[in-house]
Amino acid sequence: MTDADREWDLLASALIDYGVWYVGPHARPRGRAPVGEELFVRLAQSSHARMREAIVLLLLRRPELGPDAQRAIARLEGRVQMQAKHRYCAACALQRMWRTRLIDAVGGHPLIEPAFTDEFELPPFEEDFGLSALLAVSNREEELFGYNAWAGYESMMGHFLGELAVRARAR
Amino acid sequence: VRERADRARIDRLLRTIGSRLRRPVQLYLIGGTIVVDRGLRADTFDVGFVVRADDPAAIDEFERLIPILKDELQTNLEPASPADFIPVPSNVLDRAEYVRNYGQFAVYHYDLPTTIISKIARAAERDLADVEALVRSGAVSWDDVESTWREIRDSERGWLRHSRQDVERRLGLMRERLSPPA
């Protein structure tokens, strides 16, 4: 097993511990799974796109970790930091877009504390239920990094909400 | 980079399609595009549609045109249907409301009660606001929504994205949201 495999398993286990079944570990990992701020740092620095994306889902599932995410982002640099900031903003927007479904699946949670809105000149997260902000964030990501962020967030939310619904039915 | 489509942009798109098609085609607008086309909200990201034609060559012509117009008019056209997510009445397209035509290109609004149920099934905040707007404006009666739900709820097939139980529960939430305060 390579270091990259071990890191994947640790991060996947850490996400599952927080109720995020987005990626699965290949094997039960040895060592302690990172939590809070440290988990956000390692997700953002992961070489796997799905781990980096999982920042969004972790915030949606556990919005109270917003301050941990902000502290983690402050520790990052360059492109990794910039992508993590965008994902934080995307989580803020997506939570508002899907509030009823999220409450239906996992109960009421606080709203994620807005951040980086002035830096990115985003519209308020309340505007059009978060759609305006997500559009602005996605367009910025596409311009800066070249990928279709909007399609990525749509696909990720479809997967995440579907998974939450299945687990809610199984309870 | 995505842009929103308001009513004028949607109309320009439909007019352009109508001017370029040489064979009869029926286009059924779906979801948020209907809400924008009815003037109940300002804009949408995707112009969603279902297309039908008697002549397969007409569908072929339409499908060749769409990618060209997406670029030309900077509008995101998305083939999509409530039937991709939940069961729909067997004659759902025959229930659509005709709204206008551009030459041989006829434009309809997909069956509104089915549209409402599919929006409640997905239940994004934007969907729920659209449902409220459609019902409160009188565009669709809630009795018709309930009647359509009774038609489809026992279907054994078609629960492709949302389960019957999930839709039933979300319909309950919408009934509460629409009922006047006691």
Explain this structure to me?
The complex is a heterodimer of chains A (171) and B (182). By secondary structure, chain A is an all-alpha fold. Chain A has 9 helices and no strands. Chain A has helices spanning 3-17, 36-45, 49-61, 66-75, 78-97, 99-106, 117-120, 131-145, 149-170. The radius of gyration of chain A is 15 Å and the shape is globular. In chain B, strand 4, helix 3 and strand 5 (76-79) form a beta-alpha-beta unit. Chain B starts with a strand and ends with a helix. In chain B, helix 4 (112-122) runs antiparallel to helix 5 and helix 4 packs across helix 7 (164-178). In chain B, 36% of the residues are buried. The model of chain B has no long low-confidence stretch (mean pLDDT 94). In chain B, strands 5-4-2-7-6 form a 5-stranded mixed beta sheet. Chain B has a two-stranded antiparallel sheet with strand order 1-3. Chain B is an alpha/beta fold. Chain B is globular and about 55 Å long. Classes of the chains: A mainly alpha (171), B alpha/beta (182).
